[in-house]
Amino acid sequence: MVKRSKRYASAAKSGGAEAKSLEDAVKALEGMQKAKFDETVELSFKLVVDPKQSNQMVRGTVRLPNGSGKKVRVLVFTENADAALAAGADFAGLDDMLKKIEGGWIDFDVAIATTSAMKEVRRAARVLGPRGLMPNPKSGTVTDDVASAIQEVKAGRVEYKMDKTANLSIVIGKRSFSAEKLLENAKAALQSLMAAKPEAIKGKFVKSVTLSSTMSPAVKVALSEVGE
Fold first, then answer.
1. The pTM is what?
2. Tell me: the pLDDT tens digits for 159-168?
3. Is 35 in contact with 165 (CB distance < 8 Å)?
4. What sections of the sequence does the record tag as coiled-coil (predicted)?
């Protein structure tokens, strides 16, 4: 059993065991003692889907109205590296970038690729895929409008993807955000997730929802907030 600190135990007690409205969950988190660094805040979901079925896969993106609070390092796979760098990319290139990745380098948060570059990028799928870094048309990271894609990512577009156990988390900001900004971001995340519900799922989609920060216990969110 993991031994929890007194601070964690106190926070867990203040959070309560009952499910709360989204607004009250944010207030409960705000009332917990903060760590010495600016913790990341996220909503976590247990979904009622079968991860083994391709038509029940859940993934998507959400444009957070108040941003994620995170400095996002963007890599663009393109034959025109100069244009991508001028548009705000932190790293850009094609064969040279792929060689670095094959050598173990993954110091970036989001990868964008032009359509023509994807044929070459697929050779790094074994490295990028498991880390959620593989460019994908559905998430808007395979595009020829590189400048717009970079701008959206830097402005607060967050990607999410369900794991093999039907769990999914969406970053909604930082503990330094005001309760109002966290609530706005949380609502946007909920709307995005429900819009990503697979057509194959006709009944209940979400089993549970919790709100937490990096070092805090989870606060249960009422399923009524997702309409279930």
1. 0.74
2. 899 999 999 9
3. no
4. none
